[in-house]
């Protein structure tokens, strides 16, 4: 992509228009990566937060947005400056053994996460009365065809369009007719409860925001798109826009469920329950839009998660990778992508598959891995030899380390609460 930017600069008349044109050329990796964060698991978490606690957790999305930007900005900067993926940098800096351990755990976690996306697709289809034995195979085939047959440019455009469909959750929130005064007050005035359920939900919201795979995918996408430090200012805006977009969507999901399900004291346990409950309370369009959003998010994330896995495995082991390469040029990359999709699809379709146990183990793996990945990133971003003048500044380091410490504490708390759930 970088080789096209000088042409764009010369072809554009005004300075402001040139900047806009260059931003449109560079944008994509940040917006896509962070919107995928609102996957089936994320939507479930936000739905249950609104259904069980109303607007009480809206305030958490403000600091979460800052944390998301800080971590993703580091990943994007590492990619633009070094022109290498994160797995490649970890292998070069910390050795094969460390990289192999991280890879194995990441592959297991991402396989579980991919199954979660196809489970979300099945749940979304069932809301409309569609059998999972039809919806899931069609979805898997569509995801496979997109990546195997498309170029990076084509795939990125499809992903950007999918990001726009998250507006369905904004519409659901508006159709719910909340008390906007209460909503805004809950957003800017923090409230806290020491009830076990509240703390677990708080940790769940934070834990679903920053996942290990996101850092690998974003950095790999920056490298494949050939974004360098010359265009990095535009990438920072891309990451910022993505951070705000993903948490605005989360905000409206909580608002929609808080204004309806929580207000009417309806008990729900899954995102499917939430979507079905929204219909009678906020109108059939709100429930239908909510369900459509779940299907879109599940397909979107089912495309990205195995793609991220293929990127970092091939980077770490020295295999060719990238959507712009053919199957002959990158057989391991495409082979792993196909195996993850087919395997996840088959297990979801099994009548008595232990999905809850698998999802639990993938969440634990994510929780254990995240602190290590964040520390690796900080050490790499602070290396003057690697980053030169683009290494973290003292001010940025302070924010970044606080973010990492908070994420480590909350992630460990999430793992502990899932391993030793409260009995009361």
Automatic annotation (TrEMBL):
InterPro entries named in the record: NRAMP_fam
TM spans (from-to): 16-33, 53-71, 101-121, 127-146, 158-176, 196-218, 239-266, 286-313, 334-352, 358-379, 399-420
Compartment list: Membrane
Molecular functions (GO terms): cadmium ion transmembrane transporter activity; manganese ion transmembrane transporter activity
UniProt GO cellular component terms: plasma membrane
Keyword Transport part of the UniProt annotation: yes
UniProt entry tagged with the keyword Transmembrane: yes
Protein name: Divalent metal cation transporter
């Amino acid at each position: 992509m970088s080789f096209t930017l000088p042409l764009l600069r010369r072809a554009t008349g005004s300075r402001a228009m040139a900047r806009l044109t260059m931003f449109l050329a560079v944008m994509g990796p940040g917006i896509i990566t962070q919107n995928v964060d609102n996957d089936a698991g994320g939507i479930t978490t936000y739905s249950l937060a609104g259904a069980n606690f109303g607007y009480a957790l809206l305030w958490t999305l403000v600091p979460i947005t800052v944390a998301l930007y800080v971590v993703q900005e580091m990943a994007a900067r590492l990619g633009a400056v070094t022109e290498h993926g994160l797995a490649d940098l970890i292998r070069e800096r910390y050795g094969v053994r460390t990289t192999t351990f991280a890879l194995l755990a990441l592959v297991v976690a991402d396989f579980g996460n991919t199954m979660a996306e196809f489970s979300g697709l099945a749940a979304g289809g069932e809301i409309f009365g569609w059998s999972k034995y039809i919806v899931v195979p069609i979805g898997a085939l569509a995801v496979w065809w997109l990546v195997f047959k498309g170029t990076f440019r084509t795939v990125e455009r499809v992903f950007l369009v999918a990001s726009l469909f998250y507006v369905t959750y904004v519409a659901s929130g508006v159709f719910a007719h909340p008390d906007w005064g209460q909503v805004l007050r809950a957003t800017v005035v923090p409230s806290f409860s020491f009830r076990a359920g509240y703390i677990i939900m708080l940790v769940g919201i934070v834990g679903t925001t920053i996942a290990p795979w996101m850092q690998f995918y974003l950095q790999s996408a920056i490298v494949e798109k050939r974004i360098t430090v010359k265009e990095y200012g535009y990438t920072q805006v891309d990451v910022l826009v993505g951070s705000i977009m993903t948490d605005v969507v989360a905000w409206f999901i909580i608002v929609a469920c808080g204004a309806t399900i929580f207000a009417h004291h309806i008990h729900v346990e899954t995102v499917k329950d939430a979507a079905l409950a929204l219909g009678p309370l906020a109108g059939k369009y709100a429930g239908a839009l909510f369900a459509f959003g779940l299907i879109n998010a599940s397909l979107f994330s089912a495309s990205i998660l195995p793609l991220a896995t293929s990127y970092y495995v091939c980077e770490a082991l020295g295999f060719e990778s990238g959507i712009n390469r053919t199957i002959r040029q990158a057989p391991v990359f495409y082979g792993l992508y196909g195996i993850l999709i087919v395997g996840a699809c088959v297990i979801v379709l099994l009548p008595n598959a232990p999905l809850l146990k698998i999802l639990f183990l993938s969440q634990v793996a994510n929780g254990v891995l995240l602190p290590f990945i964040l520390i690796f990133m900080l050490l790499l971003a602070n290396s003057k030899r690697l980053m030169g003048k683009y290494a973290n500044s003292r001010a940025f380091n302070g924010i970044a380390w606080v973010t990492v410490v908070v994420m480590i504490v909350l992630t460990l708390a999430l793992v502990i609460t899932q391993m030793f759930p409260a009995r009361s």
